[in-house]
Design brief:
The complex is a heterodimer of chains A (253) and B (652). Chain A is α+β, with helices and mostly antiparallel strands. Chain A has 9 helices and 7 strands; from the N terminus they run ββαβββββαααααααα. In chain A, the strands form 2 sheets. Chain A has a 5-stranded mixed β-sheet with strand order 2-1-5-3-4. In chain A, strands 6-7 form a two-stranded antiparallel ribbon. Chain A is elongated. Chain B has a 5-stranded parallel β-sheet. The two termini of chain B are 45 Å apart.
């Protein structure tokens, strides 16, 4: 490992008491931040400093800190999850920033994700879309043997790639229309590619799209920003598959 | 003194679970609709239980602290899930999975529970495939397997390095379906702060609900249930630094412990051998590198001390050290299992080499996990297909390319085998209160084998609790829902509010994290990979002092009646302090070495764990005796009827 370095930075952080209140940027200077530390560890340092001064810490969502739970959701220097490729905010490291740099941190900005406090937003709309149809309708038990239906490796692998979505919402935050198409298409694709999910693929596509529209997400205009910013590189080809599934389902109505 | 009844059914091992199911009481569909069940936690155990209970027709309230059930820390499990399918025709069977698990747990688990776990393991794989979990497959379209530690067969099913994620999303999907059907109501960003016990007409206390805080509004609320299920995971974060998520905590377990539920074997904590080493003081968590890497990676340190010194100084790199000067110490010490020895054995072996001065990074606390040989044998593409996402994660964190230089790894706290005591029905010592998944103690003994946590969480949630809870609820169908205005609810809520007020009013000088880090150091230094009578005495003394510091010098900014992340952490830390003490006293009490619990006074000449079956073949069940009093230790004897206890041997 390279010798440990540290940098001095300025952070401009979005502060907002609640969904209805007016927000503003707060600016802080932070010195001697180790470049081996993660972005969220830098925010931990900031918060320890604030608490030490008797002030309230900056609120942000985070949990697993290993890039898989999808909880962290910061818009850093104009990019969801910051400037590095294929990472969530928790796996963004300070070595990606320069000494003396000013870093701007905002919450996801989207009509469907209202701000709760500071950098924390409400993404329950994603749960509602899943509840509308993001599943295979099976109860527990009474299931045939797992190897009774062979699945082509290619299909299983493609389903896995789609299923790697972590539900963080970066795709929505990146999209100028605030569209949730990448999120929805990833689930629709995963289940449509597998024989177990194929059975109710049409019903699923219609139900999830209808819920997405109802919840105020925008339309897809193929800008590709979602794929570019997705920390798990979920492919935009899933959107093409969703469109196909949706259209076929509608034609059968 | 209370007696411990584990309610293990009679009969031969392989027939116990079938016999139980054949004779247990059930609840008919019309009555299921009248019964409320609270499930706290939405990880593999909680989500699978809530979904299955909802599908059966019960009214379920499911709580989680995150913004969505899908965030629970089961999501981070990487390597895989075990099952006794024997798809590889390599000699696996239910018995062999049972035996490996019992042996891996160093003969400190219940035979009947572990056998049941092995028995239902196959149904889990069937269930997950039916849900659309995209497990890895071979070109013929059938499921693929890999090997994990402590087994000589390949029985681990996997979905790239994201198996936990895919299994949790499967359970989350099933849960979402039930939410849509109206059988499950979700309470996200809610944290349980107490259990509510109400006496029935015979004077028996039963769990009838919980007090939970809405983390967004700060409001403390009351919820009724005919039964309460705790599925809140383990307490590894007692050590501050662990592979657990930041929010993972042991508070629900401590709340019910203070209400009388036994806490079993708290000292059994698992230290995972392959984690990315600590980088500095502001580190917030440790990242695991999956055990699956030990299928193809070889672990080594230099044979010569001067090479280790040169590596630490940076005058040499790993690739400068020729093969003949590398000590593949696991292959050397354990020829039969090699790099795939169980976690406790691998962790201690790493510590032994680092303590002896052969550690390889600037802190001297790291060993190499090398893929050079796998790349030579299989080609880079195959290695990338198997472990690509793990390699990418490693590179993002350390800025080093594991395809070119070996990974540096070191053990870290990962999982807690100890937990809430439960009987065969997964019911705690309080009626109507159940514990499932990592939150309970039941199946892993003193050490858990890799890929068995996912198995146990889903076994409990899909296939065990939905049966056993009915045996309890069948007697509760006459109980009408109890108003949350009942005095017991009012009283419990009042106590929670008083605790919050007390914390807010300390107005001292120290942040929650500063005290938590101090607790972590006490735990790692004294109740860590190797423990002694003296270190445990030190730990107990220091934790008592730190608890005092916490209650007199803590500072929480802001208000309690709104979102307050510092208050959330403070409430959890107040419980970690208690757990830390319990772990120390249990480790002090258990004067033997077994699995993850290593007492330096008790080891073989070769440095292996030395059990004392004549004295310590029991589950230590700690019973709360009140604030500032040591708990009482009750003992559930572990009788080995069906297996012969041996010294674990991974050498031959």
């Amino acid at each position: 490992m390279e010798k440990e370095r540290s940098i001095n930075i300025t952070v401009k952080v979005w502060r907002q008491r609640g969904p209805q209140e007016k927000g503003y940027f707060d600016t802080f200077e932070l010195n001697n931040i180790s470049t081996d530390s993660s972005f969220l560890e830098m925010l931990d340092v900031l918060n320890e400093k604030l608490v030490g001064e008797g002030k309230e810490p900056v609120v942000f969502d985070h949990d697993c800190r290993e890039g898989i739970c999808g909880m962290c959701s910061l818009f850093v220097n104009g990019h969801p999850h910051g400037p590095d490729e294929d990472v969530t905010t928790c796996q963004l490291h300070m070595r990606k920033f320069k000494d003396g740099e000013t870093i701007t941190i905002e919450p996801w900005r989207s009509a469907a994700f209202p701000v709760i406090r500071d950098l924390m937003v409400d993404r329950s709309a994603f749960d509602k879309i899943m509840q509308a149809g993001g599943y295979v309708s099976v109860n527990t038990g009474g299931i045939p043997d797992a190897n009774s239906t062979p699945i082509a490796k290619k299909d299983a692998d493609e389903a896995m790639d789609a299923a790697s979505c972590i539900g963080c919402g970066a795709c929505v935050a990146a999209c100028k229309n605030g569209s949730a198409m990448l999120f929805v298409s990833a689930k629709v694709s995963q289940l449509a590619l597998l024989p177990q999910g194929r059975v109710e693929a049409a019903r699923r596509a219609k139900a999830m799209v209808a819920k997405m529209d109802e919840l105020g997400f925008g339309n897809c205009t193929n800008t590709g920003a979602c794929e570019a910013e997705c920390p798990k590189s979920v492919s935009i080809s899933n959107i093409a598959r969703l469109n196909r599934e949706f259209l076929c389902a509608k034609l059968k109505d | 003194m209370a007696t411990i009844d584990s309610k293990i059914p009679q009969g031969p091992l392989a027939e116990k679970w079938s016999n139980y199911k054949a004779h247990q009481k059930l609840v008919n569909p019309a009555n299921k609709r009248k019964l409320d069940i609270i499930v706290v936690g939405t990880g593999l155990a909680g989500a699978s239980a809530a979904a299955s209970l909802g599908a059966l027709g019960f009214k379920v309230k499911n709580f989680c602290i995150q913004d969505s059930p899908r965030r629970a820390h089961s999501i981070a499990a990487q390597g895989g899930i075990n099952a006794a399918k024997n798809y590889q025709n390599d000699g696996d069977s239910v018995y062999r999975l049972f035996y490996d698990t019992i042996k891996g747990g160093d003969y400190r688990a219940r035979e009947a529970n572990v056998y049941r776990l092995a028995e239902v393991s196959n149904s889990i794989i069937d269930q997950c495939v039916a849900q659309g979990v995209p497990f890895a497959r071979d070109y013929g379209g059938l499921l693929d397997n890999r090997s994990f530690g402590g087994a000589q067969v390949s029985r681990t099913f996997y979905a790239k390095g994201q198996t936990g994620q895919q299994l949790l999303l499967g359970a989350y999907s099933a849960l979402s379906r039930q939410v849509n059907k109206g059988t499950v109501t979700l309470y996200t960003r809610y944290e349980m702060l107490d259990v509510v016990l109400i006496k029935d007409e015979k004077g028996i206390e039963r769990a009838r609900g919980i007090i939970a805080r809405n983390l967004v509004t700060g409001k403390v609320e009351r919820f009724f249930g005919h039964a309460v299920v705790i599925a809140t995971g383990g307490y590894g974060n007692t050590y501050f630094l662990s592979t657990n998520a930041m929010g993972s905590n042991g508070s629900a377990a401590m709340q019910i412990y203070r209400k009388g539920a036994y806490f079993a074997n708290p000292c059994y904590a698992q230290i995972h051998p392959t984690c990315i080493p600590v980088h500095g003081d502001i580190q917030s968590k440790l990242t695991l590198m999956s055990e699956s890497l030990r299928n193809d990676g070889r672990i080594w340190v230099p044979k010569k001390k001067e090479d280790a010194v040169a590596l630490r100084n940076g005058t040499k790199t790993a690739n400068d050290i020729p093969d003949e000067d590398r000590d593949f110490y696991l292959e050397r010490r354990y020829p039969a299992f090699g790099n795939l020895v169980p976690r406790d054995v691998a962790s201690r072996a790493a510590k032994e080499r680092c303590d002896a001065g052969f550690g390889v990074n600037n802190t001297g606390l790291a060993v190499f996990l090398d893929f050079k040989y796998a790349i030579q044998r299989l080609g880079k593409d195959v290695v990338a297909a198997r472990y690509g996402n793990l390699f990418q994660m490693y590179q993002k964190i350390t800025d080093e390319d594991p395809y070119e230089v070996p990974m540096k790894i070191f053990p870290a706290i990962h999982y807690t085998m100890g937990g809430i005591w439960v009987d065969y029905e997964l019911q705690t010592s309080i009626k109507g209160l159940f514990a499932i998944g990592e939150a309970n103690f039941s199946d892993h003994g003193a050490n858990r084998l890799g890929a068995s946590a996912l198995m146990q969480g889903l076994a409990d949630g899909y296939f065990v609790l939905p049966y056993t809870i009915q045996n309890y609820l069948a007697d509760q169908i006459q109980v009408a829902p109890i108003s949350t205005d009942a005095p017991e609810f009012v009283e419990a809520e009042k106590a929670v509010n008083e605790k919050i007020k007390k914390l807010m009013n300390i107005k001292g000088k120290r942040s929650v994290d500063s005290i938590h880090k101090e607790l972590g150091h006490i735990m790692w230094d004294n109740v860590g990979m190797a423990r002694t009578k003296q270190s445990l005495e030190v730990a107990m003394k220091k934790i008592k002092e730190l608890k005092k510091e916490f209650w007199t010098n803590l500072f929480i900014p802001g208000d309690a009646n709104t979102l307050n992340t510092e208050l959330e952490k403070a409430l959890r830390l107040s419980d970690f302090l208690e757990i830390g003490y319990l772990m120390a006293i249990d480790a002090y009490n258990r004067e033997e070495s077994c699995g993850g619990h290593f007492r330096e006074e008790h080891q073989t000449e070769e440095g292996e764990a030395l059990r004392h079956d004549d004295q310590f073949s029991y589950v230590a069940c700690w019973h709360y005796q009140g604030e500032d009093k040591d708990p009482e230790c009750l003992k559930e004897a572990l009788d080995y009827e069906f297996t012969e206890r041996k010294t674990r041997n991974y050498k031959e």
